[in-house]
Amino acid sequence: MSDESQELGITESKSHKPGEWYAEVVQKANLADYAPMGGFIVTKPRGYALWEAIQESLDGWFTDTGVDNVYFPMFIPESFLEREKDIVEGFDPEVAWVTHGGHDELEERLAVRPTSESIIAPFMADWTRSHRDLPMRLNQWCSVVRWEATETKPFFRTKEFMWQEGHTAHASNEGAWEEVWTRLEQYERVYEDVLAVPVLRGKKPEHDKFPGADTTTTVEALMPDGKSVQGATSHNLGQSFAEAFDITFADENEDEQTAYTTSWGLSWRALGALIMTHSDDQGLVLPPTVAPTQVVIVPIWQEDTKEDVLEYSEGIADDLETAGFRVELDDRDERNPGFKFNEHELNGVPLRLEIGPHEVDDAEVTLVHRPDNAESVADRDGIVDAVDEHLDEIFDKLYESAEENLEENVREAHSPEEILGTIGKHGGYVKTPWCGDEACEEVIKEKIAAEIVMQPLEDEGGSTAGDVPEPDHDECGVCGDPADEIAYFAKSY
């Protein structure tokens, strides 16, 4: 390998230094860079393309289920934010404030949105008159600012991040719950069917739910280093926001009723989970569903075979592009095949086609999978179908590997020592009966920085933890008091 290829490659180890390895993959695969202000990042074209792939899937599903896209100002008057006390208390340490416009001091401080309930709810109130106006389903794609990130990790934790936030109003609590489940299922679907990342569905404990919410549901993804990622959340807000912002409607009998509201969101933390889950010591690994380039064709020639090899390669590229695949023909003269292999591995291209004079003579193509370098040969005439099948195989490989990691890392424990020892040794999720007292979480959190990331859902029959049986103990795994709840402890991003 040349010195140039060494510089191109990843120098840190995923298993030994996951933090440093992750930062190197993000930068060397040209996904993002650090901004001059601490806590912010610059998203590069390849990184933003991944976000757009998620956005395209989710936005289509939202539209199919009655959601309208809107856009609200990024600034929220302080008086609006204060109308919902739980929002104020929950986000106060994280709010960035604008106090001046040019040289003039503003009459009222403006918050840079940490979330948009308090700016959207007043307009939902204005737009809602009758039960015929409901359900109202609004969503915006935007960025928010939360001034709490002290240690920047691109996509996982930054002061500003991209996300979508949905806000809905309903005539009944049943309608609000249906909305919550619909969005949670769509988040599960985008992780599992688009990103090839299996997730657990659950709810947050009472002390960790969204400020002002009745219930916060979540999808959680387990990373290879044993830490959990909160993948997305869907909140039943009950009537607290509707009461605070006067979202009322006339029912069928012309009686005034208070609406029920929900909010739900997924951020580009999903990109962090994608990168961390699949990538390796050679660089980025992407499922074909989101990869900006799904197939790279690398022609290999000597001067006397160059014309034939390139003509053959161009024909295959044309066929694949016509079939709808995202294809790159890497016919650069100034780079040798080895450099190209390393570069496309680093960039996470799922499938590489190698074409030399032997492939031309035999009317074949050599196919190499990015995740494991599995190599096979396909006939030229059937290359479109072969590529389609191989991309499906690559997706399945990535999902199955992540699923195995999840299934092997949900364990039970029934004492503080067991909880601490299991998380300390294995990471992953530790499942234990819980009395419901936040103080029991603090016992674990203080000693090992692990917390309750979720509890099993009681409704909808959604997946919660694979086939792991519910613990048969009825005593809290921390304090020993009677327990009728289950908690999943884990370290988290």
Automatic annotation (TrEMBL):
Domain Aminoacyl-transfer RNA synthetases class-II family profile: 47-287
SMART domains xref list: ProRS-C_1
A single MF term (Gene Ontology): proline-tRNA ligase activity
Keyword Ligase: yes
This enzyme's EC code(s): 6.1.1.15
Keyword Aminoacyl-tRNA synthetase on entry: yes
Catalytic activities: tRNA(Pro) + L-proline + ATP = L-prolyl-tRNA(Pro) + AMP + diphosphate
Function: Catalyzes the attachment of proline to tRNA(Pro) in a two-step reaction: proline is first activated by ATP to form Pro-AMP and then transferred to the acceptor end of tRNA(Pro).
Provenance organism: Natrinema altunense
Keywords: Aminoacyl-tRNA synthetase, ATP-binding, Cytoplasm, Ligase, Nucleotide-binding, Protein biosynthesis
Entry's family note: Belongs to the class-II aminoacyl-tRNA synthetase family. ProS type 3 subfamily.
Localisation: Cytoplasm
Lineage: superkingdom: Archaea
Entry's free-text remark on domains: Consists of three domains: the N-terminal catalytic domain, the anticodon-binding domain and the C-terminal extension.
Principal location: cytoplasm
Oligomer status and interactors: Homodimer.
CDD domains registered for this protein in UniProt: ProRS_anticodon_zinc, ProRS_core_arch_euk
Protein name in the entry: Proline--tRNA ligase
